[in-house]
Design goal:
The chain has a two-stranded antiparallel ribbon. The radius of gyration is 21 Å and the shape is elongated. It is built from four helices and two strands, in the order H-H-H-H-E-E. It starts with a helix and ends in a 5-residue tail after the last strand. Helix 1 packs antiparallel against helix 3. By secondary structure, the protein is mostly helical.
Length: 113
């Protein structure tokens, strides 16, 4: 009974890992190639190969194997380092500014008027 429960938990963790890797792969696939160069990251082809291999490894190997752990590390690197840099390079991830350049933390600065 306990072994079956542990097996079910590993199954769901494996499915979650697969979904996480597929999301990263799709995100890497829809980004433009010039965005990778602008963000000074590896090429789009490099990340598609790495993440594609990670998806394949997650499909064919169990979570207790060593290779899915390497795929998870590559996916985490993409999601926390490369993806934010790509978003910022494409103009979608940076800080959003509203108002003029003379705005302070409590509203517009009017020069003491």
């Amino acid at each position: 009974m306990l072994v079956e429960g542990f097996g079910e938990i590993l199954y769901w963790v494996s499915i979650g890992l697969l979904v996480f890797t597929v999301v990263a792969f799709v995100d890497a696939a829809v980004r433009r190639e010039d965005t990778y160069r602008a963000a000074d990251k590896q090429s789009k082809g490099f990340w598609l190969i790495i993440l594609g291999v990670a998806v394949a490894v997650n499909l064919f190997f169990g979570i207790l194997n060593f290779l899915p752990i390497l795929g998870l590390i590559a996916t985490i690197v993409y999601m926390v380092d490369v993806r934010p840099a790509l978003r910022q390079a494409s103009g979608r991830g940076g800080p959003r500014r509203r108002g003029s350049s003379s705005d302070g933390p409590y509203g517009p600065y009017n020069g003491g008027r």
